[in-house]
Design a protein that fits this description.
The chain is mostly helical. The protein has 9 helices and 2 strands; from the N terminus they run H-H-H-H-H-H-H-E-H-H-E.
Length: about 210
């Protein structure tokens, strides 16, 4: 799990906590929605895709006292298998009803800008996250799956043409001078974030990570 909490000593065979944990973030959504009743029902279950558990999902809320949500999904299965926790928590966080439906519209022509053309905008950054069916999400992805995702991207990006063509830089084996340049240019983030560590996102670092740049 990546936790330094003393509660890790009461772990069970599936990598979770056997007894109902003390949630340090007492005002978090995890503290509200992860009741002992739900814990007793769900804590021994592991997801099929990445073996994720409820204990791993709420690790940050157990470890730290400053979380608002305090929960991470380890794979697609997490939302289904732990729906009794995730559904009401997500609904409260986003202010949506239980019967709300997600809609997707990829027609970029419908996007209208509101940036003043006279404004001194020097750069912008857009972050987009996507998952691949059959692979875990960052908190739960296994070492083998992470390398598999990297190999898929290497193959795909090698076929990018014209203005999309670029270079994939794997972190494993990267020269320090190249890594530091990418960090200094704000293209590459550094490890060490305690929330990411406890949530499980820095396992096997830096294997299976990299950056594509063009």
């Amino acid at each position: 799990m990546g936790c330094g909490s003393s509660q890790a000593a009461s772990g069970s065979a599936n990598g979770g906590l056997s007894s109902f944990p003390t949630i340090q973030s007492k005002h978090s959504l995890v503290a509200k929605h992860v009741t002992k009743e739900k814990w007793d029902k769900l804590h021994e279950h592991s997801t099929a895709t990445s073996g994720f558990t409820l204990a791993k999902a709420i690790a940050c809320a157990v470890e730290f006292d400053n979380q608002h949500c305090g929960i991470y999904a380890g794979d697609w299965d997490s939302y289904k298998d732990f729906a009794e926790v995730f559904d009401p928590l997500i609904q409260e966080y986003h202010g949506i009803s239980a019967d709300a439906k997600h809609t997707s519209d990829m027609d970029f022509s419908k996007i209208t800008g509101n940036v003043n053309p006279e404004a001194p905008v020097h750069s912008t950054r857009i972050r987009v996250g996507r998952s691949i069916d059959g692979f875990g999400l960052s908190p739960g992805i296994t070492q083998e799956q992470r390398v598999g995702v990297e190999n898929l991207f290497k193959t795909a990006s090698a076929n990018f043409k014209d203005e999309l063509a670029g270079t994939y830089y794997p972190l494993t084996g990267m020269e320090e001078s190249v890594r530091q340049l990418l960090v200094d240019d704000h293209f590459l983030f550094v490890s060490g974030d305690r929330n990411l560590t406890v949530a499980g996102m820095e396992r096997d670092w830096p294997e299976g990570r990299g950056i594509f740049h063009n």
